[in-house]
């Protein structure tokens, strides 16, 4: 047997349903809002609380089916089970949950998708023209590079 075996045990990288895990609502009245799991009720439901300071982003403490949530990679470490609203709000602010979410690629993609969804026909036309213009400039630059490479050889 090995005397000093160096064994490193790592936790799994799965996003687990756990107390302190930040979740995103996918259905219902609070769609698109963030909350944190405060208590796990059973294998289908959890008690969540979203103490956001942003306007129209707070979620009152409530029991929610896990089917209506998406689990995010953000976790509030060492949040006690069934913590009160004040303790959850302090931990939320201390961990800067909303700032982390806003900086994530996931949130940026959702925001971009929402902007595109709300474009008018004329706005979509302007985007098309700008893309076409950018493509023309790139092709022109590539043509210049190819021409200079061809003339030097």
Give a description of the structure:
Pfam families: Ribosomal_L14e. Belongs to the eukaryotic ribosomal protein eL14 family. One of its GO terms (molecular function) is RNA binding. One of its GO terms (cellular component) is cytosolic large ribosomal subunit. There is one protein chain. The protein is α+β, with helices and mostly antiparallel strands and 153 residues long. 41% of the residues lie in helices and 21% in strands. The protein has helices spanning 85-94, 97-103, 105-117, 121-152; strands at 21-25, 34-40, 45-50, 59-65, 69-75. A five-stranded antiparallel beta sheet has the order 4-3-2-1-5. The N and C termini lie far apart (66 Å). The mean pLDDT is 91.
Which key phrases capture this entry?
153 residues, alpha+beta, five-stranded antiparallel β-sheet, 4 helices, 5 strands, 41% helix, Ribosomal_eL14_dom, ribonucleoprotein
């Amino acid at each position: 047997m090995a005397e000093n075996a160096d064994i490193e045990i790592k936790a799994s990288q799965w996003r687990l349903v756990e107390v302190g895990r930040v979740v995103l609502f996918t259905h219902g009245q609070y769609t698109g809002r963030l909350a944190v799991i405060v208590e796990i009720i059973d294998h289908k439901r959890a008690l969540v609380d979203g103490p956001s300071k942003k306007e129209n982003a707070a979620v009152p403490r409530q029991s929610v089916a896990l089917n209506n949530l998406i689990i995010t990679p953000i976790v509030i470490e060492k949040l006690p089970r069934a913590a009160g609203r004040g303790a959850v709000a302090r931990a939320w602010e201390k961990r800067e949950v909303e700032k982390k979410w806003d900086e994530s690629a996931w949130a940026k993609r959702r925001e971009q998708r929402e902007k595109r969804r709300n474009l008018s026909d004329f706005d979509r036309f302007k985007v098309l023209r700008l893309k076409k213009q950018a493509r023309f400039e790139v092709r022109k630059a590539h043509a210049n590079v190819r021409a200079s490479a061809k003339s030097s050889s």
